[in-house]
Each structure stands twice: as C-alpha cells, then as structure tokens.
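Reposting from the mailing list since nobody answered there.

I have sequence plus structure tokens for a pair of proteins and want to know whether others read the tokens the same way I do. The first protein:
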Amino acid sequence: MDVADPLLDFTCYMGRLMPGGTFDSLFKDGGERSSRAPFTGSIICDTQLYWLNALIGRCFYDFLRNAWWADRVKEKLQRKLSKIHVPYFIEELQVTAISMGKEVPVIRRAGYPYLDERGFWVDLDVSYTGSFEMTIETKMNLMKLKRTDIKQIPSSSSVSSVDSRSPVTDSDEEDSAESSTDEEEEAVTNPEERESGQTSKKLLRYLNKLTQSRYFQQATEYKYIKRAMENVSNTPLQLAVKVKSLVGKLAINIPPPPSDRLWYGFRGPPRLVLYARPQVGERVVTLTHITEWIERKLEIEFQRVFVMPNMDDLIIPILRGTDVL
C-alpha cells in the first residue's frame, strides 16, 4: 500500500469493511491503480451489519490517525496504569508512546435491544485485530532493596487509602484495580495464568528474603556493587505491548435520563491476546518473569475495568441536553 496516496489508503481501509465488489466501478481504468485495487469483504459479520461496521469505520478513520486523539487515549491509559500496584523496587508504569493501529473493532452479531430499570441495553459480539500498540516505561530501583528502604515500604492498606476518590462520584477519576490483592488476582485468572502468576510471586518472595539477609546488605555497601546497582536503577526498562486480538460479547448501556454517559463492558472475560517485548536501555533483552508479571497485570487490569459487573464509560455530549450550551 502506498501511504503517499490518500485515496488508496482510505479505500484499502474501507475495503475491509465493505461487501465484496464494492470498488469494482472505481478501479476500472485499467491503469496501475486497478492492479492495486483494495481487497473487499475481509470481515465476517451478519449481512445486516455491514452498513453499521462501515459507518463506524468511516467515522473513526481520522480518529486512528490523529495525534490529538492519540494523546487523549494515552492520557486515559496512563490514569489507569497509575492505579496498578507494582513491587516496591519497580517504579510506576509510564505510557511513553502509543500506536492506535489501523483497524476498528468489528461487530459480528448484535442482540435485540431492551430496556430495564438501568436503561437501554444491547449486546454485541465484537472482534478486534487492529494491532494496537503502546510503549510502557519503568525502572527497577535496586537501591530500594537496601534495608533502610525496605523498612519504609508502605502496606497495601496504606497505599489504597492515599486517594479515596471514587470513579462513581468523580468524573475525572478512573476505575481500576487499585484495591486488588494477590488472592483477588488469582480468582480472575485461568489455570495457565495462575501458574505463571505463582512463579512470579515465588520469585518476588525469594527476592524479598534474599535482600533482607545480612550478607546481601553488606554486599550493597561495596563501592563496585553499589555503583552497578545505581547504573541499573538509572536504566529505563521499556516494554512494547501489542494487542494482537480481542474477541468477546460487549454489553452497551445508556442509563435513563438525566445521564450523559455510555457504559460498556464484556459479559465474561473476552479472549485477549497481548504480547510484551522488553528492552533495557538500547538493548532488547529477555526478562521472562518481569515480562510475564506485567502482561498478567495488564490482563487483570483489563478484566477489572472492562469485564462485568465492572464497566467503563464514555461521556456523550449530546445526551446533556441544554446544559451542553
């Protein structure tokens, strides 16, 4: 695809969302463009939903390519990641870059809409293979492993009580896994994820026991070891996280008026496939346990925010009535 040709870029994007043969009349000139005509009909959905997928895709074409919208998505992701509890020697996760991907989620099937005391509802079977990517950066502050720092580690309860604002009452506050514990995390993972999580937790417990030993604390006082720890602590750890696919049943809810929000969440854990590729400084490295831990944390965070009874929300200005003016 020649990205320098805006029309070809747009038609290739829309071609995936259209029924087969849609662009035949547009590319009948017999020239070079006809040999690169967009492939059409690549999505799988109910016939009556082609128009809806095409309409949504057209509306979000510029959204996927606009830097302003990318920054808004980045800010929202950062607010959620800031809620994740990390081991005391790992700094807060920071989103440094994102790529919105080149596709929007596809609605494969739609259920019958209905009303109840909580408002309007409709269930959608959705599929996403747009390869959304984000770069997460953090640091392993090994100097916190020294005994003087270990004594200052706050408990989980004290961390949770720092900010008691609720996303229900504060529109700028993000819902997240801010009060999660290891026991709760195990409850939302499948056996394979639980096995990986147990391995990571064993490593952390072993590391905690090792760092509290007298020999380790004495070793950290040696000049060369201390300098090496400082160098590692000042080296950023980057992870390129890529969402390969997401498939599940998405529930859409708009509460009765007055309400300016659209709520969405999955009915049961969706099939989520994501990968994290670590890089320390300028070198791509293999840090299996840390990578697995961050991947698992991201999956848990996703479930706690987007899997019912938890739901995320979007503000829809046209639902505000005259207040929007």
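The second protein, same order (residues first, tokens after):
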Amino acid sequence: MIGYKWALAEATEEKFTVSFHAGYDFHRGTVRRIYTELGKPEALVAMETYMWGLAEVGAFLWLFFEEVDFLRLRNERYFILGRKPRRSLGPASLELPAFLRGHAP
C-alpha cells in the first residue's frame, strides 16, 4: 500500500511510540497494529484500525453484483471479483454475501 508502513515511529510533545503491523482482519476490513512506548517496551497496546480496503470495496461492488469473491493472490494480496450483475436493486435482493455466511460480525 502506498503511504502505509509495516513499522512506524510516531511522536507527540511528550513521548515517542513505535507501531508495528500485526495483521489484517479480512472480513471486518481492519488492520491490527501493536504500539509500544520507546521508554516502556514491556507495555504493548494492540489497536485495530479501520482503513479503506477490501471490505469497503467488496460492499460497494456487492450493490451491483449478486456474487462477490475475494481471491487471494499471495500473502496479503487479494483480487475482488464481481459476478452476475444485478438487473434491479431493492432491499429484498440484497441477501447476505456468501463469503460472510457463517462468520460472526
């Protein structure tokens, strides 16, 4: 991703922190980062950040296609595929996408 760092140093007026990429939740579209203060490396804080990613693009695509699949290309890279274009839109035609069935929110 452009502008995204696996490790990122951040500073405020009072302290310095470092954060590290710790994973991506495919179904919720959140990035997990671990933060630590440089003076206190034993105090780790995990935080999930919502970024524009697969979840948003997939939801938008799902409005126009009946089936949306996320195909893993390699490691953390995916391809979003829309099939069966919708001919009309309405609340009744928007069923839960197949890839979300069986997954808790």
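Reply #1 (J.P.):
I read it the same way you do. The mean pLDDT is 79.
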